[in-house]
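This follows on from our talk about sequence and fold. Can you supply me with one protein entry, sequence and fold together? Could you add the entry underneath, on a fresh line?
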Amino acid sequence: MDLAWKKLRPAELPALEAYLRSREEEAAGFIGRILRDGRLRIPSSARSVIAIAVEKEAAGRDADREGGAGRTRSLPVVRGAILKLGMGLVFPLLPPRAGPGPERLPASLGERTGSIVGPAKDVERFESALSLRPLVAVRYDLMSRKPRSSALRRGAAPQGLRVYCAGAGNLDELSPLQEAYEKEEVLTAIHSFDAAGSRASLARALRDQVVVFGRLDGSAVAKAATNARAFSLDQMGGVFVAPPYRRRGIGSAVVSALISILESEGRGTVLFVKKGNEAAKGLYDELGFETLDDYRADYFMP
């Protein structure tokens, strides 16, 4: 199949949605950035772009129409999609390889790249096609739990632990946990901690995502949250237990509480966990998650 990449037009959003639904577990981060009130939206920033891969014949009909020769056309079938946001974050979802020859992607998609996140095979192909070399590459396992696929097997939690849904009023209480989480799990060798950015990120999550936290002995000691809401599932992240409270069943309690909230709405859950983090992987295995694929987050500049 001979494909061509083109900039997405507003009228083609339904075609993009059909494609993203077919890869929803891998594409939750992509979808969550452009889904608003149940509808996909093209980013308003002039530096953001969505490119789609379609059959060359369909791309040619588009060019004819823009030149005035075409009148009507059906929606193209989307075979691949790339979201590039203005801050340099890229989500590649590439079509199957067409053949052994060199892969061709629009060179503009590689300009001012800060980070690339997605299925490992797509991240690697994107970088190879555009001759990009990351400064830091973080490898993960992508895991998924279908709604109500199995009973949640909760371990014993400490007596007195209470788990709550968080809101804007919990910003001050949860900020120390967010800071500790970012320093331990998010920052790489090329990044430095940004206190104002951390607080702003948490404030956005409390506004737009589902955040739960555990309180023990009067203090917030653990949290878990969604970080991208897709069509029928949510991507979970920000799972963190303060070091003095680990290995006491608290992580299982807060993650189970979050999953229960999502599953009460009939929604599935995906996440990516760092390779080698056997404690976290074991927790997710016990809670009914299955490993789907390799995942990557590559960084090019702070």
Remarks:
- The chain has eight helices and 14 strands.
- The chain has two domains: 3-133, 145-299.
